[in-house]
Write a structure and sequence with these properties.
The chain has two helices and six strands. The protein has 159 residues and is an alpha+beta fold. A six-stranded mixed beta sheet has the order 3-2-1-4-5-6, with helices on one face. A hairpin with a 3-residue loop joins strand 4 and strand 5. Helix 1 crosses helix 2. The longest helix has 27 residues. The radius of gyration is 16 Å and the shape is globular.
Length: 159
């Protein structure tokens, strides 16, 4: 089963959790830890983008984060095919560009079946685990349990 998640960008830490500026969807591999875990990808991206533009610029950060996520997804898929010599599922072409895996959502229209929610502020990443049940999904902040806060080192234009 896929581990789905939302990655939400906020212009500041005071924005309500249910009102992100940008809301992205990742269909699989949405778990926090591991070589390709979301926390590592987000930390790498945040360091890269903050140094060049500043994470407070959520419009550009959202666009570049989506590009970064898809680029990472394609590289991982290509590695998989190269190492194993086969395609992991029928829709994945050998070049790894399956046009699946990531999407842009309307803020406030959460997928009901996500396992994790990542709040990306200019100074931190906060990881939530969803305690949904199949009938209600994410109905409110009450279904999200904070499990980790990662402070970001500020080097960029808005540090």
């Amino acid at each position: 089963m896929s581990t789905r998640c939302h990655i939400a960008l906020y212009g500041n830490s005071k924005q309500p959790l249910d009102k992100p500026t940008v809301l992205l969807y990742r269909h699989s591999d949405g778990y926090p830890e591991g070589e390709h875990g979301v926390v590592k990808v987000l930390k790498d991206f945040c360091a890269f983008f903050d140094e060049r533009r500043g994470l407070g610029d959520t419009e550009y950060a959202g666009a570049w984060l989506m590009y970064y996520l898809i680029d990472n997804h394609v590289k991982v898929a290509q590695e998989y095919v190269k190492e194993r010599g086969d395609v992991p599922y029928s829709t994945l072409p050998e070049d790894g560009r399956d046009c699946l895996g990531h999407g842009i959502c309307k803020p406030g229209e959460n997928h009901w079946d996500i396992a994790y929610y990542y709040r990306v502020n200019p100074t931190s990443i906060i990881v939530y685990q969803n305690s949904y049940d199949n009938d209600t999904g994410i109905s409110s902040e009450r279904s999200l349990k904070k499990i980790q806060t990662i402070r970001l080192r500020r080097k960029g234009k808005n540090a």
